[in-house]
């Protein structure tokens, strides 16, 4: 089965700096890699996703890169703002739709 | 309109009781899931149904029983509640069993006292 590891567990950045979260996965059959943002007391919400036939995807200040050979993918947030503070989860799903989450990264953006 | 709705939002109950959580999605998705999020924020899949058929059943005590009357609904019934069942339970749905378009419900915070 899929095993997704996520680092770091906490990340503190100054407002305006960049934040990078890295994940690795074990199942070479994994083909879909979403990222979720969970604010305190709220549901996880999809912020960006990438499929295995794409190496990079960008949406405004957020970008995700995927290296299939190395089985790792990363989330990049540029020009961080206080509202980016949340827990971020990476995930990988296999062909059965089983979405395995990383353990989460608590991002704190300090003004 | 809420895409994936769960009820109740909060549930406080005593040990040994039986309780149910309901979930409905209006996205037309084929697949629905139950996740458990513990106090350390780890999200763990419990069950998945595709068109009312159980396709994922993780190692979960058999006190937990999902029921899917139709593809828009997936309910979770828990018997003989224990303290360790306290967590936030999230329902989710996706377009198909490949997992695209995962959308989570707002969660049910279960507290067993």
Quick description:
The complex is a heterodimer of chains A (111) and B (113). Chain A is mainly beta and 111 residues long. Chain A has strands at 4-7, 10-14, 19-25, 32-38, 45-51, 56-59, 62-67, 72-77, 86-93, 99-101, 105-110.
How does this model look, in words?
- The complex is a heterodimer of chains A (111) and B (113).
- With 111 residues, chain A is mainly beta.
- Chain A has strands spanning 4-7, 10-14, 19-25, 32-38, 45-51, 56-59, 62-67, 72-77, 86-93, 99-101, 105-110.
- In chain A, strands 2, 4, 5, 9, 10 and 11 form a six-stranded mixed sheet that branches.
- In chain A, a hairpin with a 6-residue loop joins β4 and β5 (45-51).
- Chain A is globular, with a radius of gyration of 13 Å.
- By secondary structure, chain B is mainly β.
- Chain B contains no helices and eleven strands.
- In chain B, the strands form two sheets. In chain B, strands 2, 4, 5, 6, 9, 10 and 11 form a seven-stranded mixed sheet that branches. In chain B, strands 1-3-8-7 form a four-stranded antiparallel sheet, with no helix packed on it.
- Chain B is globular, with a radius of gyration of 13 Å.
- The A-B interface holds A 31-32, 34, 36, 38, 42-46, 87, 89, 91, 93, 95-101, 103-104 and B 31, 33, 40-45, 48, 50, 55-56, 90, 94, 96-107.
Key words describing this protein structure:
A: 111 residues, mainly beta, five-stranded antiparallel sheet, 11 strands, B: 113 residues, four-stranded antiparallel sheet, globular
Task: Return the string of H and E elements of chain B.
Answer: EEEEEEEEEEE
Helix % of chain A is under 10%
Which residue ranges of chain A are poorly predicted, with pLDDT under 50 across at least 5 consecutive positions? none
Fraction in beta strands of chain B: over 45%
Instruction: Please tally the helical runs of chain A, counting DSSP H or I stretches of 4 or more residues.
Output: 0
Shape of chain B: globular
Radius of gyration of chain B, CA atoms, in whole angstroms: 13 Å
**Coarse structural class of chain A:** mainly beta
Average pLDDT number of chain B: 92
**Uncertain runs of chain B with pLDDT below 50, 5 residues or more?**
none
N/C terminus separation of chain A: 41 Å
- The secondary structure category of chain B is mainly beta
């Amino acid at each position: 089965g899929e095993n997704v590891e996520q680092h770091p567990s906490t990340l503190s950045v100054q407002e305006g700096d960049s934040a990078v979260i890295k994940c690795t996965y074990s199942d070479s059959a994994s083909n879909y890699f979403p990222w979720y943002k969970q604010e305190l007391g709220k549901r996880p919400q999809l912020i960006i996703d990438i499929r295995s036939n794409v190496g990079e995807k960008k949406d405004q200040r957020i970008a995700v890169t995927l290296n299939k050979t190395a089985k790792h993918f990363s989330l990049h947030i540029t020009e961080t703002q206080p509202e980016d503070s949340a827990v971020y989860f990476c995930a990988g799903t296999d062909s059965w739709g089983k979405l395995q989450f990383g353990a989460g990264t608590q991002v704190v953006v300090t003004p | 309109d809420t895409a994936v709705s769960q009820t109740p939002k909060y549930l406080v109950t005593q040990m040994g009781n039986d309780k149910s959580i309901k979930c409905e999605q209006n996205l037309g998705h084929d697949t629905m899931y139950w996740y458990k999020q513990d106090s350390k924020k780890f999200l763990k899949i419990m069950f998945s149904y595709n068109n009312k058929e159980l396709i994922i059943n993780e190692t979960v005590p058999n006190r937990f029983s999902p029921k899917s009357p139709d593809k828009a609904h997936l309910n979770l019934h828990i018997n003989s509640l224990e303290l360790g069942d306290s967590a936030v339970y999230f329902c989710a749905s996706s377009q198909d069993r490949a997992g695209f378009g995962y959308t989570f419900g707002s969660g049910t915070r279960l507290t067993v006292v």
